[in-house]
Design brief:
Largest sheet: none
Helix content: over 70%
Number of strands: 0
Order of helices and strands: HHHHHHHHHHHHH
Structural class: mainly alpha
Shape: globular
Number of helices: 13
Strand content: under 5%
Distance between the termini: 30 Å
Length: 296
C-alpha cells in the first residue's frame, strides 16, 4: 500500500467516525449508553472475525500471551474512551463532542511520555493551551456554559490517546491489526454489556428502535473505521495519520449541522479553529523541524 492510499484510508475512517457522532447522538433517544456500547462493539467483533482468521493463516508466528495482555489493555482503553464519549454526548452536542474528541492528537505525546518515556516536542505545551482555549470558546466563552458532557469528552480524548499509543506499540510488536481490532472490540463489548446489565433497562423493542444506529456504528464506525485506522497507520507517518484522523471533527460538525440542525455561535467557530490549529501544530511543526534538520 502506498502512503497516499494509506492516507485516503485514514480520511475515509475519519469521515465514517464523523457520521458516527450523529448516530451515537440519535440513539440516546431510544437506548441507554452502555447497552449501545456493548451492542455496537459486539456487532463490530462479528464483522472483523472472518478477516482475523484470514490474517492468522498468513501470520509468520502465533500471538504470544504477552501480546494478548497488551491487546487487552488496548481494549480497556477503548472501552474507557467509548464510555466517556457516549455518556458525555447525552449532555453535549455532536459538534462539541466531535471537536473535543479530536484533542487526542494533543494528548498522544503526553501519554507517550508516561508509557514510552519519550519527552514531548516543546510545541506540545503551547498547542495544549491553544486547545483548551478552543474548548472554552466552543462552549460559549464562559465557564458556566461548559457542560458535564464536555468535560467527560475531554476525559474521552485522554482515553483515545492512550488507545492510540498502546495500539501503536502492539502493532509494532505483532503486525496483527485485525487480531487487535477483534480483541479490543470484544473487550469493549463485554465491559459495556456488564455495566449495562446493572444500570440500564433493556427490551427487544428498545434494541429494535435503535437497530439502525447500532448497525451503522457497529459495522462502519467501529468495525470498519477502526480496522482502517490500524491498517493505514502501518503505511504512513504518525504526523500524517493524526492529521487525517483529526478531520473527523470537521466531518462530525458538518454532519451535525446538516442532519440535526445544530448551530455554532461565531465565537464557537473561533474555538473550532483554535482546536484544529492545535491538532495541526502538534503534528506538523515537529515534522517540519525534523526535515529542516535533515536538510541541513
Amino acid at each position: 500500500m502506498t502512503r497516499v492510499q494509506a492516507n485516503l484510508l485514514l480520511l475515509l475512517a475519519a469521515a465514517i467516525w464523523g457520521g458516527g457522532f450523529v448516530a451515537q447522538s440519535t440513539a440516546m433517544n431510544m437506548i441507554g449508553p452502555f447497552w449501545f456500547i456493548g451492542l455496537r462493539f459486539a456487532v463490530a467483533t462479528l464483522v472483523v472475525l472472518p478477516f482475523v482468521w484470514l490474517e492468522a493463516r498468513k501470520a509468520a508466528a502465533p500471538l504470544q500471551r504477552h501480546d494478548l495482555r497488551l491487546f487487552l489493555l488496548v481494549g480497556l482503553a477503548l472501552f474507557g474512551g467509548a464510555a466517556t464519549q457516549q455518556v458525555g454526548i447525552l449532555t453535549t452536542t455532536v459538534t462539541n463532542s466531535s471537536f473535543i474528541t479530536g484533542l487526542y492528537v494533543v494528548f498522544v505525546p503526553l501519554i507517550a511520555v508516561i508509557f514510552l518515556k519519550r519527552p514531548p516536542h516543546p510545541i506540545v505545551w503551547p498547542a495544549a493551551i491553544l486547545a483548551l482555549a478552543g474548548i472554552f470558546l466552543l462552549s460559549g466563552g464562559a465557564l458556566s456554559h461548559l457542560t458535564g458532557g464536555d468535560l467527560l469528552t475531554v476525559v474521552c480524548a485522554v482515553f483515545w490517546a492512550l488507545q492510540i499509543t498502546l495500539a501503536g506499540v502492539a502493532l509494532t510488536a505483532t503486525g496483527r491489526p485485525l487480531a487487535l481490532s477483534a480483541i479490543q472490540f470484544a473487550v469493549t463489548a463485554v465491559a459495556g454489556i456488564a455495566v449495562a446489565i446493572f444500570l440500564e433497562p433493556i427490551s427487544v423493542d428498545v434494541i429494535l428502535s435503535a437497530i439502525w444506529e447500532i448497525l451503522y456504528v457497529g459495522i462502519f464506525s467501529s468495525g470498519l473505521a477502526f480496522a482502517l485506522q490500524l491498517i493505514g497507520q502501518r503505511y504512513t507517518t504518525a504526523s500524517q495519520a493524526a492529521i487525517f484522523l483529526s478531520s473527523e471533527a470537521l466531518f462530525g460538525a458538518s454532519l451535525g449541522a446538516l442532519l440535526l440542525g445544530e448551530t455554532i455561535s461565531p465565537i464557537g467557530y473561533v474555538g473550532c479553529g483554535l482546536m484544529f490549529s492545535a491538532m495541526l501544530m502538534v503534528e506538523l511543526v515537529p515534522e517540519i523541524m525534523r526535515r529542516r534538520t535533515l536538510a541541513a
